Amino acid sequence: MEHSEKLIDLRSDTVTLPTQEMWDAMYRAEVGDDCKGEDPTMNRLQALAAEMLGKEAALWVCSGTMGNLVCLKAQTQPGDQIILEPYSHAYYGEEGHIVTISGLLPRCVKGHHGVLTPADIRAAISSAPASYSTLRLICIENTHNRAGGNAWTVAETQAIREVADELGVGVHLDGARLFNAAVALEVDVREFTRYVDTVTICLSKGLSAPMGSIVAGSEELVARVRQVRRMVGGCMRQTGIAGAAGIVALTKMVGRLAEDHANASRLREGLLTVERLGVETPPIPTNLVFFDAAELGVMAKEFVEHLRTRGVLGVPFSATRVRLTTHRHVTPQDVELAIEAVAATAHELRA
Prior knowledge:
By secondary structure, this protein is α/β, with parallel strands linked by helices. Helix content is 41%, strand content 15%. The strands form three sheets. Strands 2-8-7-6-5-3-4 form a seven-stranded mixed beta sheet, with helices on both faces. The protein has a four-stranded antiparallel beta sheet with strand order 9-10-13-12. The chain has a two-stranded parallel sheet with strand order 1-11. Helix 2 packs parallel to helix 11 (240-252), helix 3 (64-74) packs across helix 10 and helix 12 runs parallel beside helix 14. The two termini are 20 Å apart.
């Protein structure tokens, strides 16, 4: 395959650019001082998000990382213990803020395709010494990035709520791609959020806003989250500019995530035909496609570098594992070209 002029960017759905409607909304946005709660556009976004997520209140934050940080810190005290999956974004990908900023003791519990079960959690609790710190929170991730974009079901989420109630602890949902899970399972997103105390969703991934995430929960919890957001420097001024894009993201961009899932399904299907390419098939796939080049005798970084020369961008996710992500800017034609490029790269590098 010849190197194309257009690079097919499958690195992440964070590469999405605002739609024209978002640009127009940002240009016209009515703004005020959000630190004083006086930005009318941001207030509209937060009210909309709270309604869509089935919570009493919502708050815009700069990023998903900040969202997880402020939610965890608002519901715990330094020295508390938190349960999470070892490959969850909150533990694996957020620069250690659980420990360094929140002072929490992470207790990692290995899931199944990223999904924790009550049995997993009970086993972890029973093995803890009596002197262990107080368990305060269970943190889950839906969809689970490093588990191949696997979506938790509503029943799996409910089961965590039940064991949390049994243990007398809270539940935080890192829902950066929660709308992907809702679309994949054809359920209302509130079916998930009803079982958690706090939730974060990302506006700047598949929903295509230029920046920002949403935190939602009870009025009491969100008030505490607002205080923590200020503590970590997240209180900004005329945020309605970003809020205007967020409104378009929530009202216009959720349904089209099904297109990304269809493209990812075709990409996965095509890559499964490539000999010795370890393509992953999660139980409930969404817009992420992972493969492992170990059987080819190739490192992920080398594979990605060669793939780029064929016009396709991917991300090395471990020594031999590669991630490809579909999003709004990826067409069915791009997917076919990407399949050809991966197949040609695998053939070229095969040991």
